[in-house]
Each structure stands twice: as C-alpha cells, then as structure tokens.
C-alpha cells in the first residue's frame, strides 16, 4: 500500500515537472524570496507573476462586465421593440396591399366589362 502511494506521488511529481509547473513555481518563489521589500500579499504576488490579474484588476473587470451586461440588456430590449414595430409596419403594409389588390381587381373587372364587346 505504501509503495502504491509513493508511486502515485512520483508520477505526479514527474507530471508537474514535464508540464513546466515545477519550473514556473520555482521561478516565482525565487522572485518572491529575492524581493527586498516583501509584498503585503504573497499570494497576489504569485498570481501576478504567473500571469493572473491582480485583485484590483479583477474587480475592475468585474465592474466592466457588469456595465456591459446592463448595456447589452438595454440594447437587446430596444432591438426586440424595433422588431415588434417592424412587424406592425409589415402587417399594416400587407393589409393595405391586399386592399389595393382587391380594388385593382374591381377596377379591372369594371374595365373589362366596359371594353368587352357585347355578347349576342
């Protein structure tokens, strides 16, 4: 059982090493060690060195995302309203168009009756 645990640990260590994790963490920890003025948050220092946003950057991004979501919701609602207006205009146009067609047919029928030669 103990050998199995050791084998798992060794496999995991090899995995971390081959994927570059150990090297990256070692470099970051060395950089932290070499800081003359230690940062107030070692964790934030490590996150930044590994490419993550700082807490303040993260908060700014969250606020920006929230603002953009509000703008998106407003624009989407306006878009939906515009679509409803467009459907109303189309509907009105098609009703008027069908009235025009009916009137045109009546006029054509009257014209045909007037121009057609009388039946004997």
TrEMBL record:
Subcellular location: Nucleus
Coiled coil: none
Domain of life from the UniProt record: Eukaryota
Keyword set, alphabetical order: Nucleus
GO cellular component: nucleus
Family: Belongs to the AMY1 family.
Protein name: c-Myc-binding protein
Organism: Brassica campestris
């Amino acid at each position: 059982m103990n050998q199995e645990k050791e084998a798992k640990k060794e496999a995991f260590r090899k995995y971390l090493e081959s994927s570059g994790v150990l090297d990256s963490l070692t470099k970051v920890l060395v950089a932290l060690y070499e800081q003359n003025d230690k940062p107030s948050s070692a964790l934030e220092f490590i996150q930044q060195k590994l490419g993550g946003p700082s807490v303040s950057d993260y908060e700014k991004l969250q606020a920006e995302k929230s603002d953009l979501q509000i703008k998106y919701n407003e624009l989407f609602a306006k878009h939906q309203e515009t679509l409803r207006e467009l459907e109303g205009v189309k509907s009105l146009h098609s009703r008027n168009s069908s009235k025009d067609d009916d009137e045109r047919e009546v006029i054509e029928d009257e014209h045909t009756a007037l121009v057609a030669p009388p039946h004997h």
